[in-house]
Amino acid sequence: MNRTDRPNILWISLEDTTPRFGCYGDPIARTPNIDRLAAGGCRFPNAFSTAGVCAPSRSAIITGMYQTSIGTHHMRTAHTNRNTPDMPTPYSAVPPPYVKTFTEYLRAAGYYCTNNSKTDYQFTPPVTAWDDNSNQGHWRNREAGQPFFSVFNPTVTHESGMWEKPDRPLTTTTNPDDVELPPYLPDTPKARQALARQYDNLATADTRVGELLDQLEEDGLAENTIVFLWSDHGEGLPRGKRWPYDAGIRIPLIVRWNGELSLGSESDQLVSLIDLGPTVLSLCGVQTPQHLQGQPFLGPQTVERDYIFATRDRYDESYDMIRAVRDKKYKYIRNYYPEKPYLLWIPYRNRHPVMQEMWRLYAEDKLEGDQLTMFRSRPTEELYDVENDKFELNNLAEDTVHANVLERMQGALAQWQSEFGDMGDISEEQMVAKWYPNGTQPQTAPPLFIPINASNPGREPAQENGEWDAPLLLQLHCSTQGASIAYTTERGEDVGWQLYTEPLRLPKGETTVRAKAIRIGYKESDENIFHAEIL
Prior knowledge:
- The protein folds into 2 domains: 8-434, Alkaline Phosphatase, subunit A (3-Layer(aba) Sandwich); 448-534, Immunoglobulin-like (Sandwich), CATH 2.60.40.
- β12 (322-326) and β13 (330-335) form a beta hairpin.
- Helix content is 20%, strand content 19%.
- The strands form 5 sheets. Strands 5-4-6-1-7-8-2-9 form an 8-stranded mixed β-sheet. The protein has a 5-stranded mixed β-sheet with strand order 16-22-21-18-19.
- The longest helix is centred in the middle third of the chain and has 30 residues, at 189-218.
- It is of the alpha/beta class.
């Protein structure tokens, strides 16, 4: 596939969003731009995240590896919780050395890759992941004719957008009387107001979607750009976000691929967000590494799924372990701590107005029926007919009629854990101690410069600046297993770091090459500089 033949890829990544769009049949949604994207492409109503929160989910997306396979399953790793300083945070997760961000494979194939600008990968984004990882990242900054992969992350739909704040209007454009609350939440004016705010926030995000689609048109790129719109996990309501119920992991997924996907179509295939990276690599003609655990859901390498999988582990201050497997009709959930209540102590979640309503009404003994669901004790196993029980309230795990289904789903989960590994069996403290010997984050070794020409066959690294006969190749090397190397010939602080993939062919004259190396989870290496005159 020639450079000019390769498709461009645009990702529009929303936050905390279940499919409350007009194109998904929601009568009060105001999403004309998302709807027009769907009208020109395909909806995937059976799309799911691997976790009900952003950081574990986003780590799976960017690596193509399940968070429980690489140690990015606890939420979150990057900061210390003020009330629980004894936890082994902060840390940057250290996946196996062969794990990369899948964007490195795109960059190596000549793609210009930008992220604007949320990461939240559970590790510091390596400098080798993106050409531009900032709020200025845009395909418009690439070289002429260069194919691109660009990601935009509107954050307005995050759960915090539903909170009551002094600077936030009390009224909403969406009429709170029109919203439909799930039966397990209290139906109060405060709860309705919060969900109405989310509809307003979705309308704001839709405007941003429209701007990006219009920019593609303005640049003459719409025909050759495959557009994906998705959310990092489900809705930011109690029993949605943070949970492996459909409200927490079912996401919108819309793909527009001109000439390949029927206009306004729908595909019922199961899709996991872990499949996004392998799908993009396949569509761009880039070989998919064998270690990736996701699988393409579009293009000639499509592999249809039988199941999707989701997890819940430590979230903020509270440890938990839940695993879930779902097919198109059933969902099986395994609670590894059935002695714990559903509602563990998570202060951040308790800032949500609907959660505050739940606690208030429970204390006043005013909740009833399904509204008490989250205050009941956990069973070890849960089984739901999601086709007929969309709110997952009728647990069939002990129903003998469904014994064969239960056994099949148990087997699917056990097979998944066996095939991909499950680091939930290891304490977080032990995991971090293994990665950080003596409590210290390891550092990537600095790169070496290996000059190669007719008189120097590359047996020794350059020890100092000097003169070299042309033609001269410069090989870069890092002794840290799994490290990637970035280099630049630019001066100053704000420079573009290129991904090193092969020896550099240096021109005659004075040349300066700066390089640094990074392995995911390690500290970035010190920068090394090679300065030479090529004669």
